[in-house]
Amino acid sequence: MIENTRFASRSELVGIAALALLLVVVLPLTLDVFRLNLVGKYLTYAFVALGLVLCWGYGGILSLGQGVFFGLGGYCMAMFLKLEASSPENTKIQSTPGIPDFMDWNQITELPLFWQPFHSLTFTIAAIILVPGVFAFIIGAAMFKRRVGGTYFAIITQAIAAILTILIVGQQGYTGGINGMTDLRTLKGWDIRPDHAKVVLYFVCVACLFGCIFVAQLIRHSKLGRILVAMRDKEDRVRFSGYSVANFKIFAFCVAAVFAAIGGAMFALQVGFMSPSFVGIVPSIEMVIYAAVGGRLSILGAVYGTLLVNFAKTSFSESFPELWLFGLGGLFIAVVLAFPNGVAGLWSDYVQPRLVRLVTPRKAGWSAPNAVAEGAPAE
Amino acid sequence: MSLSDGPISDTRRRLLMGMAILPFAGLLPRTAYAAAPPTSAVNTTGLAVTDTEVTVGILHSATGTMAISETGSIQAEKLAIEQINAAGGVLGRKIKFIQEDGASDWPTFAEKAKKLLVNDKVASIMGCWTSASRKAVLPVVEQYNGMLYYPTFYEGLEQSKNVIYTGQEATQQILAGINWITKEKGAKSFYFIGSDYIWPRTSNKIARKHIENFLKLKVVGEEYFPLGHTQFNSVINKIKLTKPDVIFTDVVGGSNVAFYKQLKAAGIDLSKQALLTISVTEDEIDGIGGENIAGAYACMKYFQSLKNENNVKFVDAFHKMWGEKTVIGDVTQAAYLGPWLWKLTVEKAGSFDVDKIAAASAGVEFPGAPEGYVRIHPNHHLWSKTRVGRARTDGQFDVLFETADLVEPDPFPKGYQ
Amino acid sequence: MLIGQQPKDFLLSVEGLTVSFDGFKAVNDLSFYVDENEIRVIIGPNGAGKTTVLDLICGKTRATSGSIHFRDRDLTKMRENEIVQAGVGRKFQTPSIYDDLTVFENLEISFPRGRSVLGALTFKRDAEVRERVHEVAEMIFLKDRLAMRADLLSHGQKQWLEIGMLLIQDPELLMLDEPVAGMSVSERVKTAELLHRIIEGRSVLVIEHDMKFVEDIAHKVTVLHQGQILSEGTMDKVKNDPKVIEVYLGH
Amino acid sequence: MFGDYTLSQLGSIFVMQGFAGLILFSVYVLMALGLAIIFGQMGVINMAHGEFMILGAYVTYLTASFVQSHLPALFSVYFFVAMALAFVASGALGMLTEWALIRHLYRRPLDTLLATWGLSLILQQAFRSIFGAREVGVELPQWMLGSLPITDTIEVPINGIFVMGLTVLITVAVAYIIFRSRWGRQVRAVVQNRVMAGAVGINTERVDRLTFGLGCGIAGVAGSAFTMVGSTGPTSGQLYIVDTFLVVVFGGAASLLGTIASAFSISQTQSTLEFFMSGSMAKVITLLTIVAILMLRPQGLFALKVRK
Fold first, then answer.
1. Considering its fold, how many domains does chain D have in total?
2. Could you say which architecture CATH assigns to the domain B170-300+388-402?
3. Which residue of A has its CA nearest to C149?
4. For all residues of chain B together, what is the average pLDDT?
5. Which residue has the higher pLDDT, B382 or D278?
6. Which chain B residues contact residue D137 at CB under 8 A?
């Protein structure tokens, strides 16, 4: 019998190593800084997709408002950076120097109270995790305790995304409105804009991503992961086995929210600004497609799915901008109708068995480890 | 409007452009046909300049919600580039352009701007439309020392070595119009309605200060609606109750259509009720429908119906290139100025180097502008005239007023902040 | 409500239980009591409200009025998982197991430890768990199928697995909804044998149609009809009750 | 907030705001009806509903242009033809969608959501390629323009009255179809027990297709009516989808009456709030209230208590 303290099966370890090789060695060596920074930006969406694998793929909870958490994380980070960029010397042209420029444009003459703590990096980092976490907890507790799930939950999260967008845009004196927070410059005095900083931030982002992958794997291989699978399958049975189904859903939703928030914070750092265009309904649904293309049950698939869709988007929209929406729309339909397990499903159904046959032609009876199998066999 | 280039073949178009540009030839600076100076002398910073070619970037939204507005700018910039090339290019080099799609998404704008500057080494960028996209691109062009020509009338409060603002900033656009309508209509009270973002809010702030502090009149209401909002019945009811002398609007995008339709349906007759807009150009009327907005006043620096010689030729060339039915709004014209101003500045500086262009920009004159003579101010905005037009049912404006002199751009207006 | 009366003597006391769906009273003013170690069988024609009674006890359906006391705790005020943790186990009519998990994992999830979120995260598959799983697996004839995905089991095996999942919870009150329905003859025999073994040492509430099976195990039988008790008592008494005969044979 | 107005002005405010709310109400009901049928009766989340609506609007636009240039004499009545055509066009596309897409996904409601979102992207781009990115305006016949003065401060727009009348008409028709007609009985039978309905000889596939078609067709009519008050652009539909879903969910998904009640309360709240605060905040508060109520009462305003 296999110990259950491990966080990945052998084939998964190989997969993780391959991804690490790609992100840490291959891409940095082959891409110029501009493209690498682009990959870094895409990877921030992979955090969201990763969370969706846990909460949608495993927990069966489809949130169409993950942009909310991405945005909350991103805005927390951006608020810190913006304050640092709004030093009195940098903003001496304003009527009130020392406050962010958009506040000055909106006749705000002193820093609002809720902005004050964002002078502290420690507070900011805590806020990046806690604000979305607590927010997700409140939504989750309210909804799941009352057994709201499925499509209702999807619609309500969507409404929340819409509300937050309108709020951010409407309260521009405090949030920068539709322009967002732009011109973020330094982190504790370290300039985040030059090329070498971008490279460093890319690696920080990759490190965070692997941290999240590790946590996700840990959850998936714990009993909690199996309970999530069980819940998606027979919610009532889990309930009548003595588990509070709502608490497990809240947990999965909160983890997904925190992942998304870390992604958002990394986005603000790498791209140098944050705007409400990542909070709304459209980006939120687009993030779902990343997870779906990767395979909604595959943690690593989420990363590949995100990269794949974004590369396609960038290259498509460069050469055939008109066709991109057709492509994206078709992708949604194809992934639902024809490839419900996404890239990971294709890999485990077609590629891996052949690879295995190639590598171990004589070991009869050795079955291919299934990359998307829920919970590895127990014995 | 389709995004394709229209029915005219490429070669024929070039020919037409060549003919269209001839009248301009007399206005062109002397270097236009001179022998090209060596690349090493005019390009010391590694830009994409060869002995025969110079590359510039065009960065607008070809897709997404902003494509509606930005298509005109793309067309105008391409027209200007064709004309410049037909007239011999810049420092003897043909302009080649790389077009990138900002996709109505601000980070994409920043990303593509960076690509144009870092990968393609373009000598300048004609681009952006919304304030948000400009704000996203600004740090990029400043960091990589690029040159951006930005066409839209905007809120001001900005000035950069790396940007030339070819549209008007808010005080330039608004003040003359308000003065005119106050005098013309004997207005005592104003009602502001805008979309909820920085440009309408800043513009209204300036308008309010001007009305209250300088004209000593009243603003009886100020309302903002989310972008894309389509239900204006409430605010229309308020207008009916407060009966302002002038409705002052800066509603943008699709909301306009709903707003003017509902205004008309509610029985507010724009031939009797004065309405001054700073956001509706000929482009917008296309969607609103002339019959819904006829009678409204608009305050801009350019109208397609301007009768001066430059404009007649410009409109003609534009129609030949992009089809008879295309309309030309204020921003489209401002976008057309971008490549020309850049060319004139390069030739004044005798170099493609961004630093030299930035330094040489102040004082560059373009007498051939469709809107009439313009000149770059040391603050990198344009000296320009402000005009008031009245919308007709056919979607064009009757120009009723223009300022006697060029209005000085004042992006950080004292007393208006 | 019966104020002052402490229904302590019984393991389960159901009193004045009523539930209505849009005015239709599926269960109407129902009262009955189950002793420790009693095997109670509920029978009745379709639509009599049998399954609804189980739903009410385990908290799946909320009562309109009335009380359900399990020892001295009022189940009508508790959440389903709390009811389970108090010691009530429920098997559904159609086999309700986790198709995507292995037999081992199915049983392991039902093992009564680490039921909180944190507990589930830190749960260790230690010797105790393994032993218990093996023990139960042996009981339910699935010892050599532990690594198999549950959806590959036969219908009867799925029923057994679900019984095993209840067994591993070790409930004081076990509720079974038609445990032998849809089984082959041989499976049925094995199931009866299994049930005989597991009902020892606990109270059991069974819904069943198979009269031979009922006669075999029941201490007491409750006959439901249109949401109310038609008759109650030993199998012999019930069989000879004219009201029961009327209902079962009258139409 | 009331201080600036006199009593008679306040009276007029409430009458006119009430009326403005009624117009919004009509728009919501028209959009939500089709969605309520599809979501309530079939459990399918149709994210492309807004695009079906916009299709109706474009059909109206095309009809208007055609009649204007070829049959100017009939211009005053073209709208009725346009509405019928909009119904047919959106309904037909809806049935095609059901056949090609939805019927494979009845057991996977979240997947229908993603697939129909994909469809909505494709339709948006198709509209953009065919009609251009710019909004198109539909010219209305003269009699639909202007307003009826009731007192000197109270005026009612004629197209508003028209939209309201249309709403009543369509609602009654839908109620009749669902609750009185033979086909409606079949639809309800399929909703309650698909297998049994199939067993008693109801062609469930055909019922599904027609139900979906009906829902989409009503969306088309809504789009047609909508051209009178709003604009028609490729992405106009997307603006409404969340509002419309909230109306349906808030009303209690299975209830036609609930949809109407919820559309009424949401529209009145929003238009009243709009009078006293900025449009953005009015919208935020309205949506927030709905979400809060839904968290406390997830089944919506009207819901049947059923045994599950």
1. 1
2. 3-Layer(aba) Sandwich (3.40)
3. A377
4. 88
5. B382
6. 257, 261, 287-289, 292
